[in-house]
Structures are given as C-alpha cells and as structure tokens.
Amino acid sequence: MLVGTRGSGTIFFSYCNLSCKFCQNYDISQCGEGRQVTAKELADIMLELQDSGCHNVNLVSPSHFVPQILEALVSAVEDGLTVPLVYNTGGYDSQETLSLLDGVVDIYMPDIKFGSDEAGKKYTGVPDYFSVVRRAVKEMYRQVGDLQVDKNGIAVRGLLVRHLVMPHNLAETGEIMKFLAKEISPRTFVNIMDQYYPAHEARRYPEIARRTTAEEYRRALEEARRAGLTRIYS
Questions:
Q1: How many angstroms separate the CA atoms of 17 and 4, rounded?
Q2: Nearest by Cα to 57 from 68, 44, 67, 71
Q3: CB atoms < 10 A from the CB of 197, how many?
Q4: Has residue 4 been placed in a domain?
Q5: With helix as H, strand as E and coil as C, how does 190-232 read?
Q6: Residue 28 DSSP symbol
Q7: Which helix (H) or strand (E) holds 140?
Q8: CA dist 7 → 21, 53, 57, 157, 205 (Å)
Q9: Number of folded domains in the chain?
C-alpha cells in the first residue's frame, strides 16, 4: 500500500508522546537516538526522498514535532514536494494538533494499540489512551475519508489503521474493530499485524513476555471480519 516498488520515504522523529512498555523502536522513541536538524534541513530530506523515487514521505511519531514539520513543509512545497504526506502516529493526537494538519496530510496511519483506557494506561503510560484515540481517528477520517489507491495499488489518500495483536488478547482487538466498523466506516483499511515480540521492558510483565501465537492472530482476524470490516490486510 505504501511501499510499492519504490519504497516509502520514512523519517523517524526522536522520542514519542507515549511510553509503550513493549516498543520495538525504543532506542528512538525512548532513548532519543537521532540527530537535530533545522526545518530547512528537514525540508531537504523530504525532497531527497521524493527525488530518490519514494512513493510518499512517511513521518513516524510526528505528533510532538508538528510545528516544525509545518515549517519545513512550507519550504519543501515551494521547492517542489508533491508526493503524498503520511502521518504515521501512535494515535494519541489532540484535536488541536489535528486541526493544524487539515488539508496538509494526505494519508493518516494511526496505530490503535488498545481498546480500553485501562490497558492503555498500563502499557502506554497515558491514562486516557483509547478515549483520545477514538476522537483522533474520527477527526482523521473526517479529513481524508476511506483509503484510496492508484491504478498500481499505491495509497494516495485516506485513513489506514494499524493494529498489533497482543498476547492473551490484551489489546482487546474486538473492541477496536467494532469501533472502526460502527463509528468510522466498514471500509476502513486495517492492517492487522502479527509481529509482536517482547521488546524494551515487556519482560517485566509476564503476560506480554512472549510472542503471540498463530491462534491468537487467527482470532484477531476473525474479530475484524465479525465486526463487519471488509478491507483487512494481514
């Protein structure tokens, strides 16, 4: 959908507005690995990715750098940036932040990690995870609608939701899928992922200190179908 034949031009931002105990990129999101760049340098990076043939510019964990990203985009667009802009987020985005991005972002790609505030508080470090995500995804969908692809199957605009299956169904997958089908759209494009492993601090929590099983993943896919979703990528 995003990668195609020429790749997605990914830019990772250091740190994160979540503190997921199982983060697979914790060296970037928690330890701050990376280098400081100016807005103009960020614009140049975007243009370099476009010039190398990437299908899009993919901003990973961008929520806490939106003002700087917008500043960079002014320069990048003036200098010829035309490929779709992907906002690749943990889903914990405020309405104020999203309002700044209306008409700017082409593809919203939020993770929905947990289907309850209780689980979100325990494993992401914020007390209102699912409540905030529900409002955020509704606003994202209002801005860009269902995912649209070009003749080659490459995403050009819309909402693409990712969900990582957790051991013991701790993510409450069914609640997430029902929310998407009933409150967003049954045509919501959902990427249900099976690559969970106990990274970062996960081994401190016995219930998530192992990989997911094939049966847990199969049940997650069934939950999505049962909810009425019709565009499921696995």
A1: 29
A2: 44
A3: 12
A4: no
A5: EEEECCCCCCCCHHHCHHHCCCCCHHHHHHHHHHHHHHCCCEE
A6: H
A7: helix 129-144
A8: 29, 8, 10, 16, 36
A9: 1
Residue pair 206/167 in contact by the 8 Å Cβ criterion: no
CA dist 26 and 147 (Å) reads 29
With respect to residue 1, please indicate whether it lies within any of the assigned structural domains: no
Under DSSP, the state recorded for 14 is S
pLDDT computed for residue 84 by the predictor: 98
Q: Give the domain CATH number at 70.
A: 3.20.20.70
In a domain, 126, yes or no: yes
Structural domain of residue 153, as residue ranges?
A: 9-233
Confidence of residue 3 (pLDDT cuts 50, 70, 90): confident
d(CA 40, CA 96): 24
Determine the pLDDT at residue 129: 97
The pLDDT, as a whole number, for residue 82 is 97
Q: Would you place residue 212 in the very low, low, confident or very high pLDDT band (cuts 50, 70, 90)?
A: very high
Q: Is residue 172 part of a domain?
A: yes
Look up residue 123 and give its two tokens. Answer: 């494993």
In angstroms, the CA 20 to CA 122 distance is: 9
How does pLDDT run across 142-173, given as a tens digit for each residue? 999 999 999 999 999 999 999 999 999 999 99
**Quick one: how far is CA 105 from the chain centroid?**
13
Computed over every residue of the chain, the mean pLDDT equals 96
3-class secondary structure for 79-125?
CCCCCCEEEEECCCCCHHHHHHHCCCCCEEEEECCCCCHHHHHHHHC
